[in-house]
């Protein structure tokens, strides 16, 4: 789904809101998430997931054309960790069993 498709879907679901207002709401939410990540903050949306910025260290890379060593500076990279509810809905609605702590019927 693209940003414009999201806005169109929200407009169809909420006919009492004007299209420009919905565009402003969506843009504001994305801008605030981006600004928080730029500050180094973590953004958690309960039931959906958490956005954070992970720091990558500086390293020596290679130019694929020449094979020459190239210094690559450290940088922050956006990272998204889905929440439990989102993972369950994507995987068919049923909660997935935990790999740890489960006992097989033979051990019960």
From TrEMBL:
<keyword id="KW-0805">Transcription regulation</keyword>
<protein>
    <recommendedName>
        <fullName>Integration host factor subunit beta</fullName>
    </recommendedName>
</protein>
<dbReference type="InterPro" id="IPR020816">
    <property type="entry name" value="Histone-like_DNA-bd_CS"/>
</dbReference>
<comment type="similarity">
    <text>Belongs to the bacterial histone-like protein family.</text>
</comment>
<keyword id="KW-0238">DNA-binding</keyword>
<feature type="region of interest" description="Disordered">
    <location>
        <begin position="55"/>
        <end position="108"/>
    </location>
</feature>
<comment type="subunit">
    <text>Heterodimer of an alpha and a beta chain.</text>
</comment>
<dbReference type="Pfam" id="PF00216">
    <property type="entry name" value="Bac_DNA_binding"/>
</dbReference>
<keyword id="KW-0810">Translation regulation</keyword>
<dbReference type="InterPro" id="IPR005685">
    <property type="entry name" value="IHF_beta"/>
</dbReference>
<dbReference type="InterPro" id="IPR010992">
    <property type="entry name" value="IHF-like_DNA-bd_dom_sf"/>
</dbReference>
<dbReference type="InterPro" id="IPR000119">
    <property type="entry name" value="Hist_DNA-bd"/>
</dbReference>
<feature type="compositionally biased region" description="Polar residues">
    <location>
        <begin position="99"/>
        <end position="108"/>
    </location>
</feature>
<keyword id="KW-0804">Transcription</keyword>
<keyword id="KW-0233">DNA recombination</keyword>
<comment type="function">
    <text>This protein is one of the two subunits of integration host factor, a specific DNA-binding protein that functions in genetic recombination as well as in transcriptional and translational control.</text>
</comment>
């Amino acid at each position: 789904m693209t940003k414009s498709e999201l806005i169109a879907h929200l407009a169809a679901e909420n006919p009492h809101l004007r299209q420009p207002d919905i565009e402003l709401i969506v843009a504001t939410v994305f801008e605030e998430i981006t600004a928080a990540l730029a500050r180094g903050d973590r953004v958690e949306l309960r039931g959906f997931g958490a956005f954070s910025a992970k720091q990558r260290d500086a390293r020596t890379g290679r130019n694929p054309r020449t094979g020459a060593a190239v210094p690559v500076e450290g940088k922050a990279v956006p990272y998204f960790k889905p929440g439990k509810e989102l993972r369950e809905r994507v995987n068919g609605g049923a909660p997935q069993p935990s790999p740890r702590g489960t006992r097989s019927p033979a051990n019960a």
